[in-house]
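Narrative of accomplishments. A recurring question from our advisory board has been how the design workflow behaves on a single, concrete structure rather than in aggregate. To address it, we present the structure tokens for one chain from the evaluation set, followed by the sequence designed for it. No filtering or post-editing was applied between the two.
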């Protein structure tokens, strides 16, 4: 048996990495395009949900609930539209008719004062210092406050609270009054310092508050309660005319 030839090692020649298959390149490109499209869609979505104006052109910030943002006195809250406000006060002695005044104070003398937010008119009797009719009206305007109606409500509430704790008057009757303004109350009281009784009606008309008071002499305590109906009737008759006059302003 002859000698076998030794097996020589096999040396494989070097070959570089094979280029990617042509079929794989479109898939990568498609993936890139999909990512770009997704990013663009997200950007559009973010733009659409940013607060801005709606289709009617109303700024969404303008319909934020009242009190959530500071307001300036020159602006009127959306819940207190200007067209529903009492725009100005009528003349101080121009709200109650001459006939109504004559029934309460025959041959009355009048004294009045006025500015843009407060007017007073007092009718006095020539025969008695204790007999008089007084009308006082306060106005809260958008030029002075951002919340004219709320300020009028606060003033009305303060008057109602003070009526329960009046130190110089003895309350005979105090109750809510309907049919005069947005809210009203009537008060019949006796003055502790002099022999008079007073029938009073205080009412609020949106951003205005007015008080009508009628006073007459009542020398004896037993006569004071008897005058309640008559005094309040005269004050209420005048208050209804003030309410009507304010609706025209």
């Amino acid at each position: 048996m002859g000698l076998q030839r030794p097996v020589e090692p096999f040396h494989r020649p070097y070959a570089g990495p094979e280029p990617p298959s042509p079929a794989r390149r479109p898939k990568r490109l498609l993936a890139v395009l999909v990512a770009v499209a997704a990013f663009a869609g997200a950007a559009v979505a973010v733009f659409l949900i940013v607060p801005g104006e709606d289709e009617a052109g109303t700024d969404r910030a303008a319909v934020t609930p009242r009190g959530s943002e500071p307001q300036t006195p020159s602006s009127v809250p959306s819940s207190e539209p200007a067209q529903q406000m009492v725009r100005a006060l009528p003349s101080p002695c121009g709200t109650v008719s001459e006939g109504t005044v004559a029934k309460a104070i025959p041959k009355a003398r009048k004294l009045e004062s006025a500015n843009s937010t407060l007017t007073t008119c007092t009718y006095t009797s020539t025969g008695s210092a204790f007999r008089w009719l007084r009308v006082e009206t306060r106005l809260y305007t958008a030029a002075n406050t951002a919340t004219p109606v709320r300020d009028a409500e606060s003033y009305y509430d303060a008057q109602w609270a003070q009526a329960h704790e009046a130190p110089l008057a003895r309350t005979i009757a105090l109750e809510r009054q309907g049919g005069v303004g947005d809210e009203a109350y009537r008060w019949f009281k006796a003055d502790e310092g002099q022999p008079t009784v007073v029938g009073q009606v205080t009412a609020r008309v949106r951003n205005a508050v007015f008080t009508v008071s009628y006073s007459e002499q009542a020398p004896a305590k037993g006569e004071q309660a008897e005058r309640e109906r008559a005094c309040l009737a005269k004050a209420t008759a005048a208050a209804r005319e003030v309410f009507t006059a304010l609706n025209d302003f």
